[in-house]
Sequence to fold (508 residues):
Amino acid sequence: MRGLSHAYGAKQALDDVSFDAEPGRFTALLGPNGAGKSTLFALLTRLFSAGTGSISVGGHDLNRAPRQALACMGIVFQQPTLDLDLTVRQNLAYFAALHGLSGRAARLRIDESLERLAMGERASEKVRALNGGHRRRTELARALVHSPRVLLCDEPTVGLDAASRAAIVSHVHALAAEGLTVLWATHLTDEVGPDDHLIILHRGRILRDGAARDITEDGDLSGTFLRLTDSGETSGIAGISREGHA
Amino acid sequence: MTWLVALRAIVQREALRFLHQRERFLAALVRPLVWLLVFAAGFRAALGLSIIPPYQTYITYETYIVPGLCGMILLFNGMQSSLSLVYDREMGSMRLLLTAPLPRWWLLFSKLLAATAISILQVYTFLLISGLYGIDHPPWGYVLVLPALLVAGLMLGSLGLALSSFVQQLENFAGVMNFVIFPMFFLSSALYPLWKMAESSPLLRDICAVNPFTHAVELIRFALHGQLNLPALGWTLLATAAFTALALWGYDPARGMSRPKG
Fold:
């Protein structure tokens, strides 16, 4: 994405944001609450369009060819989006159909996707009967049904216990290693690995953009993140960072 | 082809959800039945009806309000399905729908059609019960009313859709229900014919005459008697087009349909 800005009335939510997420790499978008992550995801999923700037997904411009761009995206939303009264399989079938998959082809993809996340044996259970971790896994499986090239995850571990959180994080890292482009928004530094591509977003601006290990100071990403997003010094840091990484 | 696959899935989902919510089905039936069996029975004595088209003989008040109550089912369902849109949107499944790689108008239209199909099922159940109660219509009427219900259902559904795009919170929506459903229903020909309304207030009659719900009800009334009311059809279609345009504008990405908190 290039030069993305967006404002809600007088409040500037995103200010000239540009970055790339590469295939085969886990790109973590790290920012405290209110940094603009949700706005960024709303723009990426074309919930609404940006004031200025452009977004290209899989080579398709989101404004000029929205359907092609959306077709190569798999999305895990921050809010739960499963129908609780339908089974896991019915939820996935609904999504598959929205992407034009039906019949045998859809069944195969759904099975494959569920197996990949070890959810195969729960396929005919109602979502209501699943715990939070399994619901998230179902949503992740659903986002992969149409074999997207890009996976977008908007704080997908919110509300999960430590074990489920770790499981989802490692699943998605494995997916990235298989060649998927992953963009993962979070405010938790422990979800970012040293080899991941890290983007730190704060108050609608990018403070850092590079390999997580290069950004981390003294081997402590959490401390680095806190220092960077501490309100007192943000303006100065933003200026330096923008010269270095724009 | 892809479009039809998506349409089928959206209708199926709506039907499955509906099957899981039997209380919703019952509630939707109880409301018009109470009106028919209690309200109409009391009003029957108080209200004299003359012979007006499409009726060729004197009719009982119960017979008169059946089309209005069919309209009531469509009205409540249209608003309720858009209530579910507001709820869905907060729950996120509207976002799921809107990120499908299909034109947004088609996705919204599919959603509308699915909700209308469910409403029509309820209307037929209501007609069946009122038939058992002794209020029947010409056999052809039951067939001809189908397209009328479809048009009326789409009109009310698109109104709900338009409202849902402008209403951000569920609490506001309760207000909309009161300010939309009740005026729409009472200021229409559902309960009294317009000439009866004119006896007490010509102004009220005029308001009723421009209410699109009046035309939807008249369309259903004539269709149930095997007749086509062309002006009513025209008005209903016009209102559908207007509400749909409003809904599409409300859901246009460039305008922004919701404001995220983050």
Remarks:
- Chain A touches chain B at residues 8, 33-39, 41-42, 45-49, 66-68, 70-71, 73, 75, 77-83, 85-86, 90, 93-95, 97-102 (CB under 8 Å).
- The two ends of chain A are 12 Å apart (CA to CA).
- Chain A has nine helices and eleven strands.
- Confidence is low (pLDDT under 50) at residues 232-246 of chain A.
